[in-house]
Protein 1
Amino acid sequence: MIETRLYKRSIQLELQNFKEYFYILTHFFNKEIPFLIGLCTTHTTNYFREAGHFDYLEKDILYHLMIDQELLSKTFKVWCAASSTGEEVYTLAMVIDKFYRENKLYPDFEIYATDIDVHSVQLAKTAVYANSHLKSIPVRYHNYLKNGQGKYEGFFQVDQGLQKKIKWGVQNLFSTFTENNKDVYDAIFVRNVFIYFSPAEIEDCIKRMSRVLKPERFLILGHSEHLSGMDSDFELIRDSIHKNCKSARVIRTLEEIKKEVNIQEEKVKSKDENALRLLCIDDSKTIHTIIEKLLDDVRDVIIVGHAYDGQEGLDFLANNEKGVDVILCDINMPNIDGLQFLEQQVKVYNIPTLILSSFSKEDGGFYFKALDLGAIDYVQKPQSNNFKEVKQDILLKLRTAKKSQSIKKEVSGHQLNVKSLKLANEEVEKKIVLIGSSTGGPQALETILVNLPKTFPPVLVSQHMPDAFVSHFAERLNQMCDMEVSRAEKGTIIEAGHIYLAPGDQHLKVNRQVDQFILDYDTSGQWDGQPTSVDSLYGSATVICSEWKVVTITLTGMGKDGTEGLKKLRNYDAIYSIAQDEESSVVWGIAGSAVEEGVIDKQLPLTAIAAHLISKIKSRSK
């Protein structure tokens, strides 16, 4: 089906094949992506589809308006998520408005209608539909419809008064609702959408929805959808209709938390004496269970405590005399969230903390806020179906975090008196800077890149980071730097004054195109276990060494990624290699490996790298 839609889109653009369409997509991504989303998603719906839900809305949900004076005095708010072309939204509006009028109630109501497809939203906003829809709309609602005339003959339009009750938006269901959507709701309709998602994705989505749905209010799914077996705040009250029961959640008392400390201490006896002591903080019981199972057979890691929000995490730390070595912490939690917890615990305990993330684009902003507050790194939230994929990564990062140095906050904001320098054209031409980094890298990169002048050779960065976060990082750096920062796009001509960040799921490379050098990707699998490889970036630069001078900077990070690539570059005179020193590194892994192998010309503390780099660029002029 999708292939057929893409074929029609190619014909519409007068393209010859899918290869040409891929070119359009990669070079005009922002313009074409709305069309691609529409091609890959389904937008078929009708008025009063699954009519039992609207019957329940009228006879049960809205009925409470008449007997609850508090509700009666407030605006009744509904979120219609994945609203497609609008038929469901206008059905809701007609049902609510008719109920109000028949019962002589005069509170206001609002409907927030969203869909991921911008073209469906634009169509829905017109409120114009073919007369074929009339057969599905009960006659008692036809007074809300206006017959079309002239060129609109055969169509009808929904009453403009109802249209004013609706606020439209383009939104991904996995976005952070509390940022994009400031309201809380009495009902959320998200029907016939979850059938396309995995159980883990559904659980993540409903967890977010519970935060924008009032306690004891209603989540309405499609008749073929369910939440059975999932950790959520929702109680099924009738077929596919759920009530948000988060207000019934009991916060554990301090005595219960102390008891938890004692229970976990008993488990320590079955582990190695010097096992890493881990505190896990997440408001999902499922995540706690999965992490327990994941680490059960690991003798050098012991979970000494579980907490379900930031306040419980602080209480646990205050009552655990034997201490905690590393913390795994979710961000979105009730009471005190992960960011608030992190800010407080770093000030008091300064325990290395790894952020639990689902790696969605909407998590990116929170991830960088967490790094600013002192988080060491991130780990992917494990689910029951991806144990093998994430277990080794979690174990490696836990062990690395225990040995890591705390990130020095004065470093990330340090400014040097080199940014105002201007380099002459001859000092910039035919030079390139390549940077590799991993754990602690985002803060280190900021310290260096913000101090580079606008007139500077191109900089290519391979930072180990989920692709979902790269665009956030590029936007963040772009606001801080004089140079222009962007996520690297295949085929882009490498130009001075630009910083290119490697995609998180491919290996960034330098390649030749006639007499120019361009950005390229390598998708040949993982290098050193990383989907974004420093080795690949460094190694590819051999193609440029005969004509350009290359400076590499290997920063903080775990592993050995980059060392083999540097060995290839050492065969050329045009190469000069810098490494961040051990004292200023969060983890002296990839830089330490390069130093040990003798492929580094200069070791420097982080705050000295930018000035040295600029002087080296100036001195290497022809």
Note: Confidence is low (pLDDT under 50) at residues 407-415.
Protein 2
Amino acid sequence: MNKKIVVLVLLLLLSIGSFLRFNGISWGYPYLLHPDEGFIVNRAISMVENGTFEAPGYETPGNIIKKVSSVAYKAFSSLYYHTSFFSSQIDVTNRAIYYIITRCISALFGSLTILLAYYIGRYKSKTLGIIMASLFSIFPIFIEHAHYGVPDITVTFFVCLVILFGLEYTQHNTYFNISLISLATALGTVEKFPVVFSFGMIALVVILYNYKTIKELIKQGLLAIFVYIFTIILISPNLFLNFNNVYSQVVIENRSSHLGADGLSWGGNLLFYIQTFINNGGILLFVFGIIGLIYLIFIKKEKQNVVFTCGFIYWLLLSSRGLHWERWGMPMYAAFLFVAAFGVYFLITQKSTMWKKIVLYICLVLCSTNLILSSVKNSVYFTTTDTRVASIDYIGKQGMNKDNTIYDGYTPLYPTGPAYITDTLAIKDGELYIQDLGKQFAIESSQMSSRFNAEPDRYVGQISMYNALKEKGELLANFSPVLLRRSIFEIKNVIYSINDIYQLTNGYSGPTINCYDISRIKSFKSYTFKDNKWLTNGKDIDGTRIIYPGGLSYGPYANLNTGKYSMIIYGEHLKEVIPRLTTDNAINTVEFSITEQKETFIRLEFDLHEYVENFEVLVPNNLMENVILKSLTIKSI
């Protein structure tokens, strides 16, 4: 292939891939909607504020993207705000800008990975390099995740760098090249710990190319380990200095349970990542991958092919974890793409009949069209308004806030992470109750309910609560996104993509948001006593309140809707106690009737004819002995 043509095609692929990755990069602005970006951005900000290049935090750890982000933040502040230092005031008023900067860094690494893919393929031929670069430039899941300021795309870049240096080592078996492989593996490891799995490929390469000279094998193996450790110490010494924190975080990340992401075996996780690849690439790309695998293993049995085991080792080992997430598979999908590119290359370089060629090129056109349109759809998706943003004005006009509303995570009241509306709901005797008083509204997000629905046998109770909420609550508003459809069959998926792109031009992205009026749903709440709060002349011991003679218990300052309520005060020496019910800091009195009163409890009922705030129960002790309170339960009836 002519050099000028290669350069032009490569520039075209870079332009297309970069546009798809950067288009919509400011999605959600000025709101912060991604649950994990804060772990990177906030810590990169703290690095600049504290004047350090040591990246805090160990859960990802994302040390490369944090460090690059911190440099970019300082440069941005200098250029845009004309200040040579980082101002905390600038940070507070424009925090979302720094999220966009980190997303741009992620997108940039994604675009550079296209170049790496070309150079990896070029070791075989320029044609193979172009095929690999093409697949990386328009693979839909890479387009999507390049829009997030998290380490998944950067770690894919470093895994590809490991493969590139591995190929260079197979051409020139030198200490320098084995050092480069270890260097790239170390960079990937400080970005995400599982990249250490790449050492499996390093071991295979070193053994395969040095098994006849054991002394050389040992020397190169030791050098690889030394360079790996030395690089990590040089770049992120805190990973060693705070090894206990690192170990603790690794243990946490290796937990076996996470809502919506567990329940699969090792084999199930392996299939999950394969299925994700097929869902994004289509059945034809998967077939090309199978052909490529056959080509590499059985037809072209070259020693250098061992470097492509890197992503597959990652796939085999990471799947042994109890959890599975789509984003964890990025280096795996890269490995699958490399193999698929070999399959395409093998087919187009074979001599065959005209009809076979026609069928092949029809398949290639279908596969390419499918990938391009799917990637365009993913890119356009980020230019639309998120439902969490679209619903903000509505809930403001309705007076919904955190005080009078129960809500899921990934809703306007809590957009950046999980929160469980089901923790505030209960089903007793087939009836739905709200375990909080004074709540008038509920906001539900499909991004939470779908996680429970992913494991219906395990979360029967939570799913029934969502169903009861939909049945009992009065739906006030619904904000539904364009539901992106997908098929593993190219022709069908092309039709879906065209329709989805059209729908997105006038639709929303994000989860489905449902807003309910729940003022008619029964509610209850039990209060216990601690920390001597709302108490004069007495004390709290282990949840039990002791009111001394002449003392007073008051509170709990609840907000209550209009309706009828029952209350039970549990304790001791309550037979002669006369409670009072008030609102507005004891200014107004609420009338009530005692239905039953004994030494151990007082049962009473009262009606509210309007919404009240700061409802409190006053329990005075006018006796000569201590009054004991154990709990107080208010229930709507």
Note: The two ends are 80 Å apart (CA to CA).
Protein 3
Amino acid sequence: MLFLRVTCLIALLIYSFDSHSQEAAVQDLRFPPMTQFSVGLSVTYGDLADARDEGGFHAYYSYEKHVANSPLKSTYRSQGIQNLEALERKYLSSTEYLEEWNNAGIEERSRILSLFAEDLTGESLDSSIVQAEYAVQYAIDNPENWAREFRSLGPSLSLEEKFLIASQLGGQFLEKYNVDRAADGVGVVTIEELFASLASGAPGGVCRDISKAQGQILNALGVPEDNIFIIAYTTPGASHATLAVADPDNPQKILKANYDYFTQSAIGVQESALLQEGGRLIETGINYRVYGLDGRPVGTIPTEVNSVLRDVFDSTLAKSSRTNFNLYQIAAQGPLGTTLAFGAETAGGDQIKGVGHQFVYPLSPSNELKFSLAIYQRDAFRNGGQLSQDAIYLSLENRMELLRFQNETTQITAGVMTLVELQYAQNHFRYNSGNEHESETIDGNSYFIGFVEAEKELSYGSRVSGDAGVVGYLDFQDVSAGPDGGFQPVFDHFYLNGQFEFGLGEGVADTEVGIVIRQFGETGHAEFGYSFNDANRVYVGARGRLSDETPGFVPDSSRELYAGFDRRCQNRTTRAYYSKNFDSDTSQANLEFRILLDRRRHKRSCR
């Protein structure tokens, strides 16, 4: 409550001094004939799912690591088989079945050696560990044909074992990190070149090369290409790319590799929180850029902090009614726009508080500009340490109507919108070791939207309406090439909504159905409402993914039911809302209240 009192005072002070002088602001409020002033409070609270990953570990899936971690490592040492080469040599010197060995493939040789090791040590050795070692060594020795043995190995491994191999190789590629390439950002390093660098010892690639190569390895091991994504985002140091994989058996579960650091999402985590990096490379920007296995861009996902900011400012790209965070907001609206103070807690545990201002300026009857500015502070915790961030966020939306048709019963409008989001942040990251790092980062994106809106009055007081649009943005042609490879327009998503209203009893019933189509999945919603006494509306609805193949990090993909009640009088609005999310098994409630203060102080009434 103290935070709300303080931020309310700040909001009112900002509003009072928003014009050139306090006196001018008072005159604006009191004397223009149609000037109105409103204040509102909104609180959204629920039992959020804990978005922190189920641990994390550096994944070395190798024979030598197995030996080092074995309770019988002294036995391995006494037998002189600490590495795979020594095990193979010992077997060949103690057997008469060389013809069987010479005719065996890697899978059969792996089985033979695992049984031989068990006879020597008394401990079971998984043949997949041996087979993986052979596959990796074959790829290093034969870079141009690297995938052959991985394809034969794949059917015998679980998804986690496949990920362990990709993570192990990510660690080896990291040891040959190309510092010069990171500095100039020029060129593409292929997976063949990465394997060649392991053989030669020469520098290899950088994060975007390595994450793409890890995805190619997983694909060769049998993971479907459509389930593999490269995720680029801003960190305290610079831009970074990691690998994310939607479990083919449960796409709501996301596995991630940051070089050799392996994590998987906790049960119940949903949407953008699934993409958080649990280690030291925490996200400091406002967007995740998503790429397919071929490196081509396929869409963007807002970070949790950007989801908060979009909701606060009612952005065109804000999600419909659901939030995956707790939000407290107080706003004052007048002739100079809306000043607000807000605080939020995300599913990832981030604490956010700030102030902002928004105004809408009509450039012409068919052209409108919306300007939003926020200053906020964020505290975030990850497995690797703690981030303290001070940031400035700017959003510019321009809506331009290019076509309008209207008669007595029909209205059609078509146009374009542009939306620019920018953030400048000062970051202070304190590692668990006690070391500290200071940095400044800039992140942003530009979206372009083409839209059509239509409405038609039907007989007996009924009405049908709808809107549709295509959202796109600019991105790299290939994440591996980066800016050096050029830019291209990218399809982000398509949306389509339809509404139908009709008289029912003494009130009006309405239904709405909508769908959003992205390159990596579809989501939808359906809602039924009933309005009565000219001021009240009750409604129920459902939303979520339309296919089980839609990855869990897609906005609005988690399935939920919701219900609400709106009461709109001439001078006050009250809204109550409750939702139940079945993927995360969490609930959330929202209460909003707004009162309009008219200078004429006329009494208002509602039935």
Note: The two ends are 32 Å apart (CA to CA).
Protein 4
Amino acid sequence: MTAAIRRSPPGLPPAALADAPVTGVPQIGPNGIAWTELDPRNHGRTGVWLLPRGGQQHHRLVPEQRSVRSRVHQYGGGALWPGAGSYHWYFVDDADQSLWGIPADGGEPRLLLPGDPGTPIGDGHVSACGKRLVLLREEPARGRTTVIMLQPDAPNGIRLLDGRSSFCGAPRLSPDGRHAAWLSWKDGCMPWEHSRVHWMSLENGERMVAGDAEASLLEPRWSDNGTLYCLSDRTGAWAPARVTRAGIRPLLRSRDDMARPPWQLGNSHYALLPDGGMAAIRIRNAVCELVRISPDGETTPIPGPENDLEGLQTDGWHAICLAGTPDSSRHMLQVDMRTGERRALTSGHSVALPDARISRAEDVSVGTRRGRVYGFLYPPAPPLDGKPPPLLVRGPGGAPPQRPGRDPPGPPIGARPGRGGGLGGPPARGSAVHAPDTQFWTSNGLAVLDVNYSGSSGHGRRYRERLRGQWGRADRDDCIALAQAVAATGRADPRRMVITGSSAGGLTVLNALIRGVFRGGTSRYGVTDLELLAASTHRFEAGYLTFLLGPLPESRHTYRRRSPVHQARHLRGAVLLLQGEDDPVVPVEQARRIHTALGGANGSARLVVYPGEQHGFRQGEHLEDSYARELAFYRDLLAL
């Protein structure tokens, strides 16, 4: 490890980032609104909090010694859902992936389904009467994710609804409990490439499948009268559609997505209203807004300050979601969809900065040979006196609840610094929301540029498709092009630019350093050898490498040419490598190999390995230390 940090930074301290819990999406239950919170200071455990109906104060729903987390498809999500009847809430225990119910009478949680860490469960849903429960159960050894159903009051009798699909997601019951719907997709693709909706009668076993290889279908949902809806991107962007025996019928055409790629389970971007219309989240140029869709398909914005929204639910005419603004971090928000009246249900976990020191995003873009590339620029706050500031460049990362301000929140590739884990870089997106890690850098004298490079979401399907076969090239080129465009306007010093990224973003960092544009870069548990990644990554995203790079062994030359470990002699600039010792996705050996290769090339690489951490840092002391070291690295490199 490097020597101890010598001086305190003038802006936000690294401890501020480790102190802030990371909030998950809301769920509306019989007795209130509940959500998860990852707490770095509680050994990285994920707790559950409840805001009772009509209450003003939220409280813990499960003991703080317990961690609630699903590990289905590695990225998890969907570890908490509302109940009915005998149980008000259901959750998945992180340690053994067991299913628990919280009784309606307020008693202690009850074990309903013993778990097996090798067979994770999650993303459950309960019928309105509470008599039937469906959920996912992943069986990696058999190469499948199944949909199972049980009766909460007699959980030993499990019924298998789908055991033939490679992957399933989002199982949902009709309100009367007589029908079930879920998603499926094949090995070798991702659900945002193409997926299908299954419908099944639980009374007579009749089945129907809708969809084809030309569209991605997400978030099946039943209305009270038994109509089945989903989101379809057949017209070029995800928008509501009706599922019928004759196929998928779009309710409206939209150039803007109304969903994010589902790296994690359990998210929601639209919900039904009492008049048969919908509340929805529209994402235009990576900025979210709440809209109301009438029964005849007319879309009306609900103006407000929020620019980042997810986890949309409705309770009558009230929409509940996780929301953030340019000035405040994400919090629980309630909106009356008739009047637009807003009420903050929680205050969020904003960092302590005066208004003059809060940096707000500016839209930036640049034309390239692949098309226009978009991003957000955050100037340092307060601004430097008449001098262009140093610039920190970031590409999209992975993992939703772990990362405020970026999609998606979850484990493995591309999690944002200090959060989450997974291959999640593409097709995530940066947003213009107030995020503690952004304010950390800008308050310490750096401008921050979030690059939504080719393949990012928030710009429609065609933009996501631009990364096909181009990973390791398009992401690198787009980050460089936008950074140089910003510097050319005088808003950044072209001689003092650095780049940072996690997992998939680490690959972007190291490949970008070959071009000599950046003074240095930080790779957090970053990919350095693509062939090793292909051999070791988990099954959910194994097929994504075919999309990003091409099939093996035919594309082996591409994998080697875009692997930084094989290009180490060409890297220019200093490198900081931050790595978890127990990382199962990008093993520590990848970091050690690139460290050795860079040491032999120019001796400018530093490696820090954190014991007990996996793919993404969850423990507060390691989060704090990693940010402190990265800041010290830039202070020395850029003379801050």
Note: The chain has ten helices and 39 strands.
